Task: inverse folding
């Protein structure tokens, strides 16, 4: 059919053969059966059947954009990373935002943490900082991750989301309380992606030109200001526009309103780490600003929408393992677990050559001897040697990139060491958040959001789960606990009777 447009390009098969008929399959006469030889029908149907790839198990619903990171302050005393080596230096970035628990078609305004995954295309390789809009997380050991995420997904029997599963798990894992508090505040329902902070969340390290290491936290503060939906507004937006955050991001960039974030870091020396009241590598804890002030680094601006959602956003793959010279890991257990699990997830979803997909590809040098495999689409090393060492190419392992050693205090930590002082204080920081950071309005909405969410707990274990979780809120702050108990119609004296018991014994 001709739609009246100027004819500029011939229609072709995937192999490039021009063809004449894209709607009617060849048949034996106008009313007869179809001919097998019309392979274009097969090609179209077969490709359509294969349009879906496995969705991400977590962070399935997402939005992405390209932008620029610009250095505004000199931090060379902490890091030799080339991305930071000159004030005014610009580096291309790709950022993917997401919700966490929902499927690919889920609503953008659900109460959920938001993913904040960044790829910096640097001359020393791609640096991925795969964070969230929260500085902490629900668990501090990756062995718990699968169990925890199951509670955020669908009940195996009803196939519905289950507040009972969620609160049962949280109440039995009090280390989740800090993140639960943030999630239940109005920051759990940000207005799209532009009005929220991003955090590297984990503790990383930075290494300077003298090969000295410091521990580091990354903070991306929104320059649009924090703006959140309250619970009712988020629910209303869910019914109006499931894709609110996606639409907001695309439209704001198309309209030239480029969102920006100020990158700041917190720095801790190894001596400070040894004296720190909490484990500085515990993902359920923050470093207080008054002890570890924010240091300005630069500004990230998003200014270009991807041309094709599937190619660039769905196929984008971030891995905390992708660090660059001058930036490194820490003993943060969750980070250590993610170093393995993220590339593993990408190999499953996208294949072993996922780093050859243009959005993931390093635009600078890539020299190694990995060859072949599905979709080896970027030259596959051409005629160069495919083994190392060899007598032909000039590829060498540059020793100037060698990292300084880590001094470890323990040989192999046994599980029981995890109860050392400062390891299991799950209450001070969530209490500080409620008491010292939230104003009266925020306190009220946090309590009301928690009450609303806990009202969904049902079934034979309902009272047990409610008492167990209420005890955690009381341990963090008496006013917080009292407010929630009242909202749920629970007698405070009854909760007090349980307070002396371990969570698992309630
Ligand atoms: P500060 O008063 O110096 O900082 C408070 C921080 O809390 C600010 O970063 C603020 O972000 C953020 N914040 C405000 N409301 C919320 C909320 N509802 N959910 C999550 N974050 C919020 O305090 P401290 O550094 O001493 O920390 C006190 C408590 O603040 C912590 O226990 C923690 O719960 C929370 N917090 C601390 C962070 C840190 O890295 N120190 C980071 C984020 C939260 P903003 O400035 O953008 O408004």
Result:
């Amino acid at each position: 059919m001709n739609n009246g447009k100027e004819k500029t390009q011939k229609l072709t098969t995937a192999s490039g053969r021009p063809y004449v008929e894209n709607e009617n399959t060849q048949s034996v006469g106008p009313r007869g059966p179809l001919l097998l030889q019309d392979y274009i029908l097969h090609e179209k149907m077969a490709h359509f059947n294969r349009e879906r790839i496995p969705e991400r198990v977590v962070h399935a619903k997402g939005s992405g954009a390209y932008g620029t990171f610009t250095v505004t302050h000199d931090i060379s005393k902490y890091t030799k990373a080339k991305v930071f080596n000159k004030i005014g230096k610009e580096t291309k970035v790709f950022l993917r935002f997401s919700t966490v628990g929902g499927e690919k078609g889920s609503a953008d305004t659900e109460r959920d943490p938001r993913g904040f995954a960044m790829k910096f295309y640097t001359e020393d390789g791609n640096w991925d900082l795969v964070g969230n809009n929260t500085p902490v997380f629900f668990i501090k050991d990756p062995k718990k991750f699968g169990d925890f995420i199951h509670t955020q997904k669908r009940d195996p029997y009803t196939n519905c989301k289950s507040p009972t599963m969620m609160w049962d798990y949280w109440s039995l894992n009090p280390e989740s309380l800090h993140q639960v508090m943030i999630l239940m505040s109005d920051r759990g329902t940000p207005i799209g992606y532009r009005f929220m902070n991003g955090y590297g969340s984990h503790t990383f390290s930075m290494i300077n030109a003298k090969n000295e290491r410091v521990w580091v936290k990354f903070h991306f503060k929104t320059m649009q200001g924090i703006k959140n939906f309250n619970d009712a507004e988020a629910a209303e937006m869910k019914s109006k526009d499931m894709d609110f955050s996606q639409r907001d991001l695309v439209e704001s960039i198309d309209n030239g309103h480029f969102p920006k974030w100020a990158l700041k870091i917190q720095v801790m020396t190894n001596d400070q780490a040894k004296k720190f009241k909490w484990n500085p590598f515990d993902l359920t804890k923050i470093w207080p600003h008054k002890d570890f002030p924010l240091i300005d680094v630069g500004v990230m601006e998003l200014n270009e929408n991807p041309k094709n959602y599937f190619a660039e956003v769905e196929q984008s793959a971030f891995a905390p393992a992708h660090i660059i010279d001058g930036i490194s890991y820490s003993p943060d257990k969750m980070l250590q677990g993610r170093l393995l699990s993220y590339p593993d997830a990408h190999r499953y979803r996208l294949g072993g050559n996922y780093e050859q997909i243009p959005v993931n590809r390093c635009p600078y040098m890539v020299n190694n001897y990995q060859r072949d495999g599905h979709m080896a689409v970027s030259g596959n090393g051409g005629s160069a040697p495919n083994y190392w060492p060899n007598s032909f190419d000039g590829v060498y392992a540059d020793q100037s990139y060698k990292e300084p050693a880590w001094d470890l205090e323990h040989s192999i930590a046994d599980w029981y060491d995890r109860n050392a002082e400062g390891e299991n204080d799950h209450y001070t920081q969530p209490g500080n958040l409620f008491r010292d950071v939230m104003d009266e309005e925020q306190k009220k909405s946090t309590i009301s959001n928690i009450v609303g969410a806990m009202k969904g707990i049902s079934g034979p274990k309902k009272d047990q789960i409610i008492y167990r979780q209420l005890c955690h809120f009381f341990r963090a702050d008496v006013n917080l606990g009292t407010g929630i108990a009242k909202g749920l119609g629970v007698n405070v004296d009854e909760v007090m009777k349980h307070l002396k018991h371990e969570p698992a014994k309630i």
Remarks:
- The chain has 14 helices and ten strands.
- Strands lie at 62-71, 90-99, 114-122, 125-132, 198-199, 204-207, 213-222, 260-268, 295-304, 327-328.
- The mean pLDDT is 95.
